[in-house]
Amino acid sequence: MSDLNAFRAEVRDWMNANLTGKFAELKFRGGSGEGDALPDLRKEWEQELARGRWTCPGWPAEHGGRGLSVAEQVVFQEEYSRAGGPGRMGHIGEGLMGPTLIAFGTEDQKKRFLPGILNGTEFWCQGYSEPSAGSDFGNIKTRAKQDPETGDWLVSGQKVWTSLAHLSDWIFVVARCEEGSVGRNGLIFLLMQLAQPGVEIHPIKQIGGGSEFNSVFFDGARAKAEDVVGQPGDGWRIAMALLGFERGISTLGQQMGFQQELDLIVEIAKENGADRSPAIRQRVARAWIGLRAMRYLAMRALSDEPSTETRREGLAYKYHWSNWHRDLGRLAMDVLGMDGNVVSEYPRRERLQQMFLFARADTIYGGTNEIQLNIIAEQGLGMPREPRGKL
Amino acid sequence: MILEFTPDQQMIREEAERFLREQSSSQAIRRVVDTGSTHDVELWTSISRDLGWCAMAIPEEFGGLGLGATEVAILMELAGSRLACVPFWSTVCLAAPLIESAGSDEAKATYLGAIAAGEMAVTVAYADLSAADPSATVAVQAARTPNGYRLDGTVGQVVDLAVADMVIVPARLEDGATALFALPSSGGQVVTSLSVIDGTRPIASLELPGLEVAAECRIDSGAVTGDQFAKALRFANLGLAAEQIGAAQGAFDMTLAYISERVQFGRTIASFQAIKHRCAKLAVDIAEARSLVFGAAAAMGQADAGESALEICGARVVASELQFLAAEEAIQLHGGVGFTWEYDPHLYFKRAQASAALLGSCEAHMDKIAAAMFGDGGRP
Ligand SMILES: Cc1cc2nc3c(=O)[nH]c(=O)nc-3n(C[C@H](O)[C@H](O)[C@H](O)COP(=O)(O)OP(=O)(O)OC[C@H]3O[C@@H](n4cnc5c(N)ncnc54)[C@H](O)[C@@H]3O)c2cc1C
Fold it and tell me: At A174, is the secondary structure helix, strand, or coil?
């Protein structure tokens, strides 16, 4: 425990010493609803983190990480958020792509791609969803055809809702490589450079007015032969494994942000008199309870030897936090009252307004509410699977 | 940072689960409920004497095992899941912590020792057990007499009173201080069992019509302070919350088993998405409540008392909400049979309502949390 306290102090000191000067502007920025804020400076910040060896601290040392324990990673996330560390531009590379390459990548792929992630110089985005493949992710239509001469893969089709594609260098794409295959079969997991002929990125304006996500169109764009992860046809397995690497450690940092939002709501309610309403007081208390429970829920889910209960609880986690956050958005606006409707530069208010709007996405991305409930029922409770239709 | 049971705690849990599955069956509960008995005598003997559950959290110096809130919460959860008809909560969570926090050295040695040895069921006659702070009011007056005290007053509802070998009575002295009196079941007080809807937890009224008691009956170490009561009540609330989530899980398990057998429209009703989603939602609520209960249990004694108290208030809120939801879903998803006496959902449903009424409503607990968050002592 005392080691952990020393480690906590180390992270805190580093953040205090480095999130200053030009980076001070980044404090508390780039979170929910403004993933595209101050992108250049936030990329520079990633390189600053890299200099302190704070990118990818959970990766094993042999791949350039610090090999931190789960408990240390949690501490890092908490202190990072507490200090106001900005939303991480490198999140997809660090949390999803890197671990996938470490587990399934070739030596050559690791050598070519891990350093860019570690150094904060190459940014990744996730090309899973398509217009006809949302919740039903197996229904992928994007095609990959092998060029017999080079062995490269030529990709055509459309990805959608691709977060930060316009600010990324690389995209991992799940595409159909076997003609006539359906569902989970015949898929391939490809690493593709975005800056190439045959790739077009169109921003999509979202609910809060910003454009964090995009449509990405492929028209004969190229993935190098050596940039297939796993075997052609094995894409589903790799794609699923990638989603499994997110163990929820970063969510403990996310909870720090939630706490800040709740604190802000309390502060504003005291100022504007909303704290006189018994109903508002009860909702504020209920939010505090939910957040406490969320913290312990995450801590139980991090156990290495889950029991039946903790495994079920792990499945419930996403549903719990996303719905809690959505409710918090509504509470924030109810506390603001009519002021909530007025757009202003007033930063505290703007943060809550953006949160109110963005939280609607929390129950959609990463598996919608309904899909989460299906997963909990089927995998957690052993209830019958959903039948598939024929359309 | 990572919250998990130790191997010892895991073992306690598994063994208790196995034991209760066999010993606190539906038939066993019904023997108590249908005959209006106060408790399952055999089960209580096994739990208190043979298995030593009552010794779990009592300090070693008094003959206990010196384990903590987590172990008790584990047992309370399992007892709740089987609606075990025993005075376990009142003895271990309500009475023992009060003796430990406010009792004299002698009282601790005598009574904690007897509880740990499984020789005694004990309850506490708080004036108003439905209040978030039941120690705030006192219903019994104590006047000094040449040989001891004369106790006067009535307490409307005391849980497990008719089972208990001893009842602890908080009473107001002439100088306004609060003292604790321990009365054996043969002490001359008038105990009247009440006919209650939730037949799994007996309740009786207590009348003290100018009862003369010896000076030795007084067991506190000097006037009892608010902090001493509060400390004991934190434990009582935590234990109750654990019991409540257990009861929710018990009702849920029963429901899952039923819906995976029952066939309508050519398929099990568990295959309908509407039903899957309701069950999954319940699983989410169970995850929330159980995490908070065991998180609060682990933090108890480590976090500062104020913080810990709020977590326990929170645990009661989620546990009460959850227990009711699990019980009402049990009735609804059982259909017509869920409305019968023969099937078990009604036992869980009645227990849910009765438990939620103990030691503070959800609203009262949330008021406390809000007062702490706004730092205004409860403004409106
Ligand atoms: C902010 C944001 C960022 C995103 N970023 C990315 C990204 O970077 N990369 C990426 O690949 N994707 C991304 N996504 C896409 C996201 O994963 C999908 O939106 C999501 O999987 C849902 O798919 P859909 O939008 O097609 O909705 P649909 O699947 O069409 O769902 C519509 C509604 O139908 C319900 N529904 C669907 N199937 C069932 C069922 N079997 N049972 C019951 N109800 C059902 C859903 O729950 C939902 O309510 C992002 C989405 C958002 C909102």
Answer: strand
Q: Do B235 and B348 fall into the same domain?
A: yes
Question: How far apart, in whole angstroms, are the C-alpha atoms of residue B322 and residue B337?
Answer: 22
Where in the sequence numbering do the catalytic residues of A fall? 246
> Cβ of B175 under 8 Å from any chain A Cβ?
no
Determine the average pLDDT of the residues in A119-135: 97
Domain closes at, from B185, B217, B249: B217
Given B105, B121, B137, which residue is the final one in a domain? B121
Which ranges of chain B have pLDDT less than 70? Answer: 1, 380
Share of chain A above pLDDT 90, in %: 85
How many inter-chain contacts (A to B, CB under 8 Å) are there? 157
The parent domain of residue B298 ranges over 226-374
Regarding whether B158 and B57 lie in a shared domain, the answer is no
ipTM of the modeled complex: 0.96
Average pLDDT of chain A, as a whole number? 94
Rounded distance, CA B314 to CA B336, Å? 34
Is the Cβ–Cβ distance between B114 and B281 less than 8 Å?
Answer: no
Q: In this structure, are B231 and B355 located in the same domain? A: yes
Q: pTM for this one?
A: 0.95
Q: Is residue B1 part of a domain?
A: no
Helix or strand (DSSP H, E) at A203? strand A199-203
Query: Domains along chain A?
Result: 2-89 (1.10.540.10), 124-239 (2.40.110.10), 250-380 (1.20.140.10)
- Same domain membership, residue B176 and residue B56: no
Domain count, chain B: 3
Residue A53 Cα, ligand 1 centroid: separation in angstroms? 35
* A276·B3 Cβ contact <8 A: no
Chain B: closest CA distance from residue A259 (Å): 12
